[in-house]
Amino acid sequence: MKYFDKIINYSLFVILAVMVSTMACNVFCRFTLKFSIYWADELAQSLLVWLTFLGAAVAIRESSHYSFDTIQNSLKGATLKTYKILGNAIVMAMVAAMLYWSSIVTVGIRSWIMPAMGVSRALLYVACPVGCIFMLIYSLRNLIKTVKS
């Protein structure tokens, strides 16, 4: 499991670094050199999508995704454990549905080409299924940890 953690952490670092440096370079070129890097905005938008879905997986890994803290903090013992198990099960069901439908969309648009970068739009859309796979792995890990505790 540590291997997945390292892959995602490193990927997020690289994605953010490339996105920031590309945008900084484009801003410099646009305002100082009076020309724009035509593919920079498209690349930054694509990287932002990847950052979002991989970041969502990290949020699940760290158990920092949206939850009802007021309810959770008022529960104790078996009720709290049931609440956490139910929450993990709901997250897993929703992520599984999102994985299924996003995979269909990704396959369906593989022939669409992004105009500035000249690559398949599927490279952008596959961020959702990849992120969902990591979300499912981390949700399952959280569920097992909750059941064992």
Quick structural summary:
The chain is an all-alpha fold. The protein is 79% helix and 0% strand.
What letter string, H or E per element, gives the SSE order?
HHHHHH
Radius of gyration: 19 Å
The overall strand count is: 0
Indicate the structural class: mainly alpha
Average pLDDT, rounded to a whole number, is 93
Beta-strand percent range: under 5%
Shape estimate: elongated
Portion of residues within helices: over 70%
Major beta-sheet overview: none
- Please, how many helices? 6
Low-confidence stretches are none
- Give the CA-CA distance, first to last residue: 19 Å
Domain module tally: 1
Would you write up a description of this structure?
There is one protein chain. The protein has helices spanning 2-33, 40-61, 69-74, 77-108, 122-125, 127-148. With 149 residues, the protein is mainly alpha-helical. It has 6 helices and no strands.
Question: What is the topology?
Answer:
Elements: H1 2-33, H2 40-61, H3 69-74, H4 77-108, H5 122-125, H6 127-148
Helix pairs in contact: 1-2, 2-6, 4-6
What labels would you give this structure?
6 helices; elongated; single chain; 149 residues; mainly alpha; 0% strand
